[in-house]
Amino acid sequence: MEMPTKFTVSASPHFHSGNTTGTIMADVLIALVPAGIMSVVLFGQRSLWLILISVVSCMLFEYVTRRLLKRPNSLGDLSAVVTGVLLAFNLPSNVPMWLPVIGAFVAIVVVKQFFGGIGQNFVNPAIVGRITLMVSFPQYMSVSRWPNPLAIMNQADAVTSASPLSQLSDGSIPSLTEMFTKTTDYDPLSMFLGIRPGSLGETCIAALLIGFAYLCFRKVISPVIPLLFMGTTVGITWLFGQNPYYNLMSGGLVLGAVYMATDYTTCPINFKGKIVYAIGCGLITAVIRLWGGMPEGVSIAIVLMNILVPHIERLTTPKPFGYIKEKKEKSA
Amino acid sequence: MNQKYTQTFTKGIITENPVLRLCLGTCPSLAVTTSLANGIGMGAAATLVLICSNVAVSLLRKVIPAKVRIPAYITIIAGFVTIVQMLVQAFLPAINESLGIFLPLIVVNCIILGRAEAFASKNPVLLSAVDGLGMGVGFTLALTLMGGIRELLGAGTLLGMSVIQEPMLIFIMAPGGFFVFGMLIAAANAIAQKMGKKPVKSVGCDGCPNHGNCSGCDQPAPQENQAGGEGQ
User: Fold this and answer.
1) Which residue out of B170, B179, B185 would a mutagenesis test of the A interface target, given it has the greatest number of A Cβ atoms within 10 Å?
2) Secondary structure (H, E, C), chain A
3) Where exactly are the structural domains of chain B?
4) pTM of the full predicted structure?
5) B168 vs A102: CB contact, 8 Å cut-off?
6) Which among A8, A36, A92, A228 is least surrounded, fewest beta carbons within 10 Å?
7) What are the structural domain ranges in chain A?
8) CA of B71, closest CA in chain A: separation in Å?
9) What pLDDT, in 10s, does the model give residues A28-68?
C-alpha cells in the first residue's frame, strides 16, 4: 500500500517564523532611517548623495561579483544595502564622492564575496571598508577634517572645528559637572541630538537609540552586546578619569555597538560568548581611546573581536544537559 | 637535451614560481616591494646570487659531505651575497639604501637554499645554472609585479613618475602587501591550472611541487628536511 502523497515526512523544523534574511535586513534598514534623516538634516543634502552612492555601488559590486563568480544573485536579501548604508554612515560628509565607491569595493568584493558571500565573511564588511579608507586616505578621513553641522547650517566658511573626539584625545574635555553647569563647546543636549562634528550617521545618538529600541522590539538583535559594549567603554574610561557622557556620545560608539558589533555573521551565538565578545570590544575601544595613537577605536575593536569570534564560540559552547566528557583514548 | 634546458628554465617562471607557487622567500617579497625599483633591484640581486651559488654548489656537490651540507651551502651563498652587496653599495647606493637589511638577508633566503638543496646538489653545472636563472627570473618577475602594483596604487607613481593623483596609502603598507601577494598567488594558481598543473592544496610532501625531487621525500622525513618547510 502506498502512502498518500500529501502526507510529507520531513525533519524538523516544521513551522517557519516567516523571518528571512531579507526581512531581518529590512528591519535593520528601517532602524537606520531616523539616523539617515538626521544626517541629512545635520550635514545637508550632500550626505544623502553619499549614502545613495555608497548603497548603489555596494549593490552593483555585489551583483557583478556574484555574476562573475557564477553564484546566484543575492541582491534580494538586502544585505548589500545595509552594508552600503553603514559604510556611508561611517564617512564624514565632506569626503569626495568617489570615496564610498572604493570603500564599497573593499567591503563587498574583498571582505564579503572573496570569502563566500553573506554569512561567510569573517569580519564586518562595512567596518573594514571604513578602516581601509581611513588608512588609505587620511587627508579626507582624519578627525580634524570633520565638518561641524552648525557651520553647515549657518553656511559659514570655516566648516571644521575641534570634535568631541579630538578633545577626548588631547585631554581638553570638561568634567561631568562642568558640562551640566557651565557653557561648554558642546552642551549635553546638542551632543545627544548630534550637533557636533562627526561621521554622517554616528552623531545623532537620539536617532540611533530609536533604531536600537526598534531592533530590540522586533527581536532582530538582543540588547546584550550593545549595552555591555557601551557600558564597558564608558565604565573603563570613567575609571581613568574621563568624562563618561563625552565618551558615550562622541565618536562611533553607539553606531558601532548597535549596528556593527551585532552583525549575525561576526558575533557569537551563545549568551556567554556574547558577553565575552561585548566586553572585549568595550575594553579595546577604551584602551585605544585612553592610550592609543588614534582618536577612535570602535572600528578597530570590533574587527579585532570579530576575528576572535570562532575561538570565543568554541570556548563558550554550552554543555548539553547530562553530558559527560568522554575520556580521551590512549593512542597506541 | 635542449628541451630539458628550456623546461628547467620555464618552470621557474609560472608553474614552479618560487614566490607565487612555492611560497618561498615570502619575507623579502612582502617587505621590499613597496616600489617597482625595489622589486627589480631585489630580484636582480637574488638572481645573481642564485645563479652563482647554484653553479658553485653543483661543482662541489660530490665534495660536500651530506651531514654538513647546509652550513656549506650557507657559506657559499654568504660569499656571493657579500660580493653582490659590495657591488650594489658601490654602484647603486640608492637601491642599497632602500633595500636596507634585506640585501644581506639574501643569505638566508629560502629560495636560494632551497634550489641548492633540491636541484644544484643533484644536477650538473650547466643545468643548475639554467635552473638558477629560471628561478631568479620568476622571483624577479613576481617582485616586479608586486612592486609595480603596490607603487602604482599606494604611492601613485611608477619608478618615481607620478601617475595617479590620489593614491591609496594602504597598498604600500603591510596589509596592502599581503593583499597584492594573495591576489598574485591566486592569479599564478589560475594560470598554472590552465597549464595543467593541479592547484597546490596540501602543505605536506604530496602537494609540494618539488615532490620526488627533494631529499626530504625519500625517507619519512623530519619536518625541517623538506625544502618547502623553511620559512624565512
Assistant:
1) B170
2) CCCCCCCCCCCCCCCCCCCCHHHHHHHHHHHHHHHHHHHHHHHCHHHHHHHHHHHHHHHHHHHHHHHHCCCCCCHHHCHHHHHHHHHHHCCECCCCCCHHHHHHHHHHHHHHHCCCCCCCCCCCHHHHHHHHHHHHCHHHHCHHHCECHHHHHCCCCCCECCCHHHHHHHCCCCCHHHHHHCCCCCCHHHHHHCCCCCECCCCCHHHHHHHHHHHHHCCCCCCHHHHHHHHHHHHHHHHCCCCHHHHHHCCCHHHHHHHHCCCHHHCCCCHHHHHHHHHHHHHHHHHHHHHCCCCCCHHHHHHHHHHHHHHHHHHHCCCCCCCCCCCCCCCC
3) 35-140
4) 0.82
5) yes
6) A8
7) 21-138+190-220, 222-316
8) 38
9) 999 999 999 999 988 888 899 999 999 999 999 999 999 99
